[in-house]
Design a protein that fits this description.
single chain, 27% helix, 108 residues, 3 helices, five-stranded mixed sheet, globular
Amino acid sequence: MRGDLNARLGEVAAQAPSYATLVVFHTAVLDYVPDPDRTTFVEQVEQLTPIGFAQEGLGVLPGVAARLRQQPPANTAGYVVALDHHPVAFSALHGGWLRWLDAPHRRP
């Protein structure tokens, strides 16, 4: 689907079947979105679904970065993988590796 990320998110999410668990997944996209629009996107995801899954650069989502209890692997470029704004792993830019964090987030 084409269009503005924030303008179309609700419309696209509404197409999910009512019996399905909606998961919003985004990878390496928010670095290209201005800060105010990032905030809008994060707020929309929080309102739409209990499950948000992100793979973004280290400083792209400040709430995720603030929850990190360890640093990414030395001398590597990568992303932080987060579930519901809680970091769960570090990953390679294009999926070459994944390193789980010591204390993974568990859904209640």
